[in-house]
Amino acid sequence: MGKEHYKWIDIARAIGIVAVVMGHGYHELAHHYTYWFHMPLFFILSGFLYKPLNNMGEFASWVGKRAVRLLLPYLTFGIIIYLYIELKEGFTVVSFMEDMYNLMYGGMMMKGLVTVFWFMTCLLITQIVFALIDLIFRSHAIKIGIIILSYLFAHLYAYYQPIETPVPWSADVTFIALSYYAFGYYIKKYIHKVLNLKTFIVTALLTIMFVIYDYKNNYFYNIDLKPNVYNHLLLDFLVPVIICFTIFYISAQIAKFKSSVVISYIGTSAITIMFLHRVVNDFFSHFFSYGIIGFTLIGVLTPFIFYILIKQVPFARFLFLGTRPRKKYEYVKKASA
User: Fold this and answer.
1) Please, which residues have CB within 8 angstroms of residue 251's CB and are 6 or more apart in sequence?
2) Through-space distance between the first and last CA atoms of the chain, rounded to whole angstroms
3) By the 8 A CB rule, do 127 and 62 touch?
4) From 13, 34, 46, 311, which residue has the greatest number of CB atoms within 10 Å?
5) Can you say where in the cell this protein is located (predicted)?
6) pTM, whole model, 2 decimals?
7) Within 13 Å of residue 286, how many CA atoms lie on the same side as its CB?
């Protein structure tokens, strides 16, 4: 199940990143409904891939690797995109320094072409917090209890909004993101039991029914993690999870086809697409006029091509993807006598 297992995850990522791009394509319905699940999906998948750590020494090493993997591309793409913005609007040292401050601060300070950057820092914090909970506490009941309390606190925080100043790195979103991440981790053991046709039919029907009900009732349900818009205690977990299970089953079915390798490869480039889809559309919009379909195609395919190119250059791969090229070892076979 190994290779196929990861293949469907990459396909789910591909569906998720297409939803992210569509959600930013200035289309009311696409924006409203993709926000129900796209970011929770990435947190769930990230939790699904989490491997428990054995001790604090291993934890420290793991944090360092995760920081490089997430923050180096964050800084590289952020600096380049801000340079693009400055050159377009008229470069000044003062405004560029303000941009760099916003990049370091992150969270709600990231707006416009860099608005989605909040996810990377929030994901890193969520991963670290969950790893600490998993490492410090042995009882699963205590771990799950902490996650539930965090989820409840997230809704109290969102309702009262006690802090007017934006929280650095969107650390406040971690309170709710932790529940999606933890769900991904804990469901891993049972995914083979629940990822079936019966579950798909139920989740797909529930999704359709809920969309119809929401549409007929003037979009009564909204969720947007970055600005702390989550006001439905039950639905803010159930709706993303139900939709994600629908996507997971579809992904598993697509993974059975050999041609799905292209879709799964797009999934592996999801972070690059996340960073670049708005800026490439901003660039091409000066030359062409197009709607949400064009926005989505350009926003997915252009960064995907860039991803393929930078993977071929070790230094670029390190800067833009946060991954070092694997060392190649030569094996010398001894001739038999």
Assistant:
1) 8, 9, 11, 12, 15
2) 40
3) no
4) 13
5) Membrane
6) 0.94
7) 5
Length of the chain: 337
Chain mean position to CA 49? 13
